[in-house]
Amino acid sequence: MQHPPSLRSRFALVIALLIICLSWLFGSLIGHDASQRIHAAVGRDLAETGHNLSDRLDRGLQNRIAMLEIIASLEVLHQPGQTQQVRQILEEINQEFSSVAWVGLTDAQGQVLASSNGLFEGRSIAAREVFQQALRQQVIGDVYCDPELAKALTAAGSPADQFIDISLPINNAHGQLLGVLAAHISWSWADEIRRSILRPLDPQRKLEFFILSHDHRVLMGPADSLGKPLELPILSLPKERQETWMVQTWPDQQDYLTGLAFSEGYKDYPGLGWHILARQPVHEAYAPARVMSRNILLLGSLLALLFAFLGWLLAGYYTRPLRQIVRAANRLSAGKVSVIPEFKGTREIQSLSQSIRRLVESLRNQKTALGAMQDLAHHDALTGLPNRIALDNYLIHARQNSRNKNDCLALLYMDLDGFKPINDQHGHAAGDKLLQELALRLRASTRDGDLVARLGGDEFLMVLQVPANTAQEQALQVAKRVLAALRQPVQLEQDVQVGCSIGGAIWPQDSAQLDVALELADRALYQAKAAGRNSIKFHGQSQHSGT
Question: What secondary structure letter does DSSP report for 158?
């Protein structure tokens, strides 16, 4: 005669099934929610990385356009017979800016009067678009290949095979055309920016950048795709409906998490309509979410087995309290209670109820850990400082808080002076160590309620909450303290020292719009660097020395 299972066996089975169901329920819910958050965070990070590349490209082109405009305004370019002096100026531009492959001045008929390295001097470039399109207005051409020009520049010691043309007319006081100032910018400059963004990232992420023209032709990407059109669903949507990131099947039939950013220009430079794509294989992008979900389920399963065995040992003695625990667990699964109640009685019953409470707390701790992972998406991986996402969130609350208190926000843009030579001489690992040490000093220079964020590379932004009547004085004190802290030597292979240029603006004193105040601080930074490095310049104020 077959006997039915004992009460102990039945009880152990119920406990095992209950805890396994609870573990899988909590694990699945938490894992699904966390996975969605991680997927969105990774997608936004890709789009932000693409935006960072686009912003640096636009800023770089705007800087070069502004430089040529300054050169074009020089009186020497409007005077005949000053060829030697003009040539010297153009040579200095070519030597100072490696991305300027060639720059030259022509007369009104297109004959080159002076140029860097003397290339094309005495020859006519009237048939080239760099001259023809600039007869009436300033022109910035899109990326193109010119084998003949590349061969000539290679022979002259400035190798390049793809170019962006910048040219503008030179007119006299009566508006008559005197000539054209033209420049060929090497497209390898953009690849240097791309590599600088990828350098601090983990190579195992397999992150890739594509730069597309306004008609979706590949300007930067794998060699076999250059010059070819790229069609993806994310690009075919109307611009107002386009998402910043999507999972896309690319022409190689592989799925990639794809972030999209647009070239929107910078200041008075309108941009060339480029599309910036940052892609990462889906299995690489979503790997952290899969590992986390697997760990949650594995931990829940192990805990289920542990407590099932404990329940089997105690089943013969604690039938009634255990039934109460089962009912409480069922209510917890149904969402009617938030915790397992603690039962009084013998030591064993109390131990079991407390153990199940710890199981639920452990699952909650997993969810807390997931929140910490989400927090990583708001901080720079190298320095631990807040990134642009965290900065945007902070500015929303800081602006409201300052309005409530009738205070101001001091905005300090900071750019390290002399960092690149140290990075080149001692290597990128040493450069990373230097940035980490300087980040600690910047963080130590802030006060409670203030924020310092890394914008990328060696650029930082400090936001200070200051009283309106002493806003600039307090901001200046902090800026000087920052300069003093950053000038202290840093021990790498040997003691190294960098400086810092700081541009500042006060919101809302300098502008009622926060984004305009940020732009004013950025302009002040460039003025500080132009006037002499290791200095402070506030919008509308004279230069402050770093001493």
Answer: -
Angle formed by the axes of helices 83-96 and 7-72, nearest 10°: 170
The single-letter code of the amino acid at 274 is W
Q: Which structure tokens are listed for 375?
A: 């927090």
Amino acid at 124: S
Helix, strand and coil content of the chain, in percent to the nearest 5, comes to 50, 20, 25
Question: Average pLDDT by consecutive 10-residue portion of the chain (547 residues)?
Answer: 59 70 67 70 83 89 89 86 88 86 90 89 87 85 84 78 89 87 88 84 78 89 87 79 78 89 86 88 78 73 70 61 64 61 62 67 60 67 87 90 90 90 84 88 86 90 92 90 89 84 93 92 91 86 60
Cα separation, 519 vs 504, in Å, equals: 10
Closest alpha carbon to 190 in 88, 66, 101: 101
Nearest-angstrom CA–CA distance, 220 and 228: 10
Q: Which structure tokens are listed for 239?
A: 């611009």
Question: 458 catalytic, yes or no?
Answer: yes
Sign for the CA dihedral angle at 38, 40, 46, 48 comes to negative
CA 160 vs. chain centroid, Å, equals 28
**DSSP assignment letter at 537:** E
Instruction: Using alpha carbons, select from 535, 435, 543 the residue that is nearest to residue 479.
Output: 535
Which amino acid, residue 78?
H
Structure letter (DSSP) for residue 142: P
Q: Would you state the pLDDT for residue 273?
A: 86
**Contact by Cβ (8 Å): 421, 535:** no
The pair of structure tokens assigned to 432 is 């990373």
Neighbours of 186 (CB within 10 A): 23
Residue 365 pLDDT: 61
Provide the Cα torsion 428, 49, 223, 424; round to 10°.
Answer: -20
Three-class SS state of 275: strand
- Distance from C-alpha of 84 to C-alpha of 79, rounded to nearest angstrom: 12
Tokens at 114, concatenated = 């002076």
CA–CA separation, 76 vs 85, rounded Å?
8
Q: Please tell me the pTM assigned to this model.
A: 0.49
The span from the CA of 244 to the CA of 383, in Å, is 26
CA–CA–CA angle 137, 140, 142 (5° rounding): 145
Q: First-to-last CA distance in the chain?
A: 98
CB 106 within 8 A of CB 119: no
Cβ-based burial of 226 (10 A; exposed 0-12, middle 13-18, buried ≥19): middle
DSSP helix/strand/coil, 242: coil
- Give the pLDDT of residue 506: 94
Closest CA to 278 of 205, 382, 379, 192: 205
Closest to 73 in 3D by CA, of 59, 57, 89? 89
Residues 6+ apart with CB under 8 A from 470: none
Answer for the pair 129, 94: CB distance below 8 angstroms, yes or no: no
Report the C-alpha gap between 497 and 430 in whole angstroms.
13
Place of tokens 């590992």: 291
Catalytic residue among 458, 510, 515, 522: 458
